[in-house]
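Predict the 3D structure for this chain.
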Amino acid sequence: DDLGFMWLGTQNGLNRFDGYTYQSIEKDSLGSSRIRVLESENVPGGFLIGTDKKVFRYNIQLERITPLFIPYYKSIHVYDLVVDKYQNVWLATEKGLISFPLNRSSTLNKGSPLNQNKHTIISREVLSLTLENGLLGWVGTNKGLYRFNPETKAFSFFPLLTKEETPPLSIQSLYIAGDTLWVGANNEKGNLFSISESPLGNFTVTSFKTYNDNISAIYREDAHHLWVGVQNEGIYIFDPVERDTTEEFHSNSIQPRVLSHDHILSIYKDNDDGIWIGTYAGGINRYDRRKDIFSY
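Done. Predicted structure below.
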């Protein structure tokens, strides 16, 4: 955050790291919920916490967690969430895509699940979301990728393959870097795609790489270093320019370039050029490129 703290969501609650020690924050306020996502963009004074049961808002100054009322649902499994520049909350959930204003009154604005008429997404589960120019742009589901038109409020299916997608591609990871969208599309294996838009509005889809397990996280460090997290396989550094894998990190790698666990959940870069990697059962890993070493 602006004060230099690192916030970590875990299966045991919210934690804050000050560079030296970890502190558990209001664990009881979250109940037994496992945290799936933290989002601070367009959330003044704090961030939202998406869990496998509810959504909460954390106020950093007041150090207070409050639950958000989710329209129509007492409990909802949140896979991902974003807040657009107009402070509309978008939730990717097991029951579809849900949207409501961040600062709405619970009686005046009830929100709605987008699952009828032109708002239909042909999927029960929405897995990933990303903003584009401050507005919802792309929606990943367990049955393919969809593009959202903010003007018409309509969704359209966006095929990644020229032939019919059988079995359907499950879109677990979306990452925008500049004018390129990186997509982790899974159907028994992990498939890495990029989507680029020309000034005339035409899209070019490029298929880059196939991995033996699902792609679970993507981060672009620079033009030659795309970090790809793969479930049960660790990290691959892919060079999109040369179309080649230049580095690999696994739990059985040679010390000190070794991960604590190969099931990757998230990848994030801090202000000191450290790469933070969240794992399923191995905690947090931090990679220091200058020293070429992992710590956890």
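The longest strand covers residues 203-211.
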